[in-house]
Write a structure and sequence with these properties.
This protein is mostly helical and 192 residues long. It is 78% helix and 0% strand. It contains three helices and no strands. It has helices at residues 27-36, 41-44, 57-191. The longest helix is centred in the middle third of the chain and has 135 residues, at 57-191.
């Protein structure tokens, strides 16, 4: 890129011509144009020297320093702009990540509620099954108790029957023993 007055910091009016020096025949027209916009040609304008001149070593170093300084400033500005862009990108990414995390959290909360509802349904079903099983076991126990009661009644009847039979036998035996004792006692008293 070359250099011209506008690029290197001159903030005024630039008149471009094919010559390296402003032609003097243009100056009256330029003075009139400046007057129309409330400028004074002699006070507000400077005619620059656009000829290529030999520069000294000191000027060369100074120009290089100026160029290097501007390059550093441009690099710094570019770094600042890049940092601003990076910050904007990070903020955008974080915002997107936060939104994604919020959506994921909402989804997980909904899934957790659905899971809890499903567990409640399953618990109700299991409770009903347990109640049915408990009722069935209670019926079995009652039936078993009734069977035991029947068996106990039968055994009691058998025992009573056996006891009655044993009593009859005992009574018979006692009667026989009494009769023998009576007979033996009579036999003892009759012999004397």
């Amino acid at each position: 890129r070359g250099a011209n007055d506008a690029w290197v910091g001159y903030g005024g009016v630039v008149v471009y011509t094919r010559d390296s020096v402003l032609p003097t025949e243009l100056i009256p027209r330029l003075k009139e144009a400046a007057k129309k916009v409330n400028f004074d040609w002699d006070k507000d304008f400077t005619i620059t020297d656009n000829t290529c001149t030999e520069i000294s070593e000191g000027e060369r170093i100074m120009l290089r320093e100026q160029f290097a300084g501007k390059a550093v400033i441009q690099s710094e500005e570019q770094l600042q702009a890049a940092a601003v862009r990076a910050r904007g990108n990070v903020v955008s990414t974080v915002k997107t990540d936060v939104e994604s995390a919020e959506k994921a959290l909402e989804y997980l909360e909904k899934r957790a509620v659905d899971f809890e509802n499903e567990i409640v349904k399953d618990v109700v079903i299991v409770e009903k099954e347990i109640v049915k099983d408990v009722v069935a076991v209670e019926k079995e126990i009652v039936n078993f108790e009734n069977e035991i009661v029947k068996d106990v009644v039968i055994v009691e009847k058998e025992i009573v029957k056996d006891v009655v039979a044993v009593e009859k036998e005992i009574v018979k035996d006692v009667v026989k023993v009494e009769e023998e004792i009576v007979k033996d006692v009579k036999g003892i008293f009759q012999k004397k």
